[in-house]
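Lecture 7 notes: from sequence to structure.
We start with the chain below.
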Amino acid sequence: MGNRLLYFETALFAIGFFCTLLSSMVLLSGKDGRSPANRFLVYFLVSMTVVMFMLYVIQGGFIVEIPWLYRLPSPMYYFMFPAAYIYVRMILLDEARPRKTDWLHAIPALLHLVEMTPYYLSSNQRKLEHILADSTNPLGAVAHSEGWLPGYMHNFIRGCIGVIYALLMMRLLWHSRRRRPAGFMVFPEMIQWLWVLSSMLMLFSLSLVMAFIAPGQGSLIVRSALLYTILAATQIVSGLYLMLNPSLLFGMPKLEKMVGRLRLMREGVQEDKPYPVLAGPLFNIETNRIEPPFHAQQPPSPVEMETPKEELAESLPFSMEEEGKEIKRFPQEMYDDFINRMTRLMEDEKPFLRQRYSISELAHDVKVPQHHISYLLNNIFQIRYNDYINQFRIRYLKDRMAKENLSHMTLEGLALEAGFSSRITFIRVVQKQTGMKPSEYFKLDLAEAE
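Predicted structure tokens for the same chain:
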């Protein structure tokens, strides 16, 4: 019976490990995997992957071959719960970056690292002694008596911390539903995932608390079986949920998209036939200036959310339960402000002169969430990010040549001067945006052939 239970637990840990590992890899491979919010989700998923891996190698007996790994990832477990909370908070509150005070959440992890440093520096022989002693205890893998605190205390504290953060996550979800119900009605799949994450974190944390309230009471075999089964099940459910809903791994729909989809629902417009948006290149070859078409034609007006809720009830996937309340509007002035910030940044600081200047760096510099920048470029300007940045580079060179003689420079020199990564890229971009070769467009008499 004991061996069968051990094999069952080991198999569960292996499944949980691969589920969280695959979801972490998919998230990291996506273009939004490195967004500020998703970095915290990655940390949480990676931490859970490490938890499953360590339980697998300990329960499977493989840890005796690598005793130096015993308890090594322990400090990172203290920050996994805050990371999940910060991720949910940034998604729901539409935050572009972590808060300055978020580092305080890492204090328990840092204190635990200080506590465990003497053990980490000890010999492998001493670690092997701890491993052999814990192997006789069904709960030995999570007993954790190597630090300053008594056995089981660390995982009891982690469980309490996890319960607190899970409650904070649920509180955020509840209050966001009251403050910004549009997103809950139009994108229930996103909210469902956040609820799943919060619920699995709560179950995971409660299992730790309940297992170690009185660790000496009851059957250790039954207690360990329940604990390990719940731990593995929460990770399998979370990993499978993400794998079955891959869109959740590649960024979350945000404010303006919520408004757009709600408007389409109200007006009966098919989502594959989007509403008219601004078109046309930003770069005007005749005037040699960047002229955003934003001012030539007004983008779609914000959704008139004062429409009685009876007219929305039939078309929305969620029912509106808030009596006598109006759904908030998202003003067009928000994007006007974003455009002004981006324009001032480009004109004053010229960040486009840096090679490989990314959209995440732009979002950081203008202090605007990256998804808003993407929406502005893709749906209002209707231009790719690289084309947007390259237009400023072409204009910069044009202005420089009007003021000083750069004919002594090679094409490669001009390319690097303007922030292009190479001469070939420079030639291709100029031809694409102006229809001319660089020497023709910039009126250069270059000795170097193109």
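Points to note: Residues 251-281, 293-331, 446-450 have pLDDT under 50 and may be disordered. Residues 256-388 form one domain.
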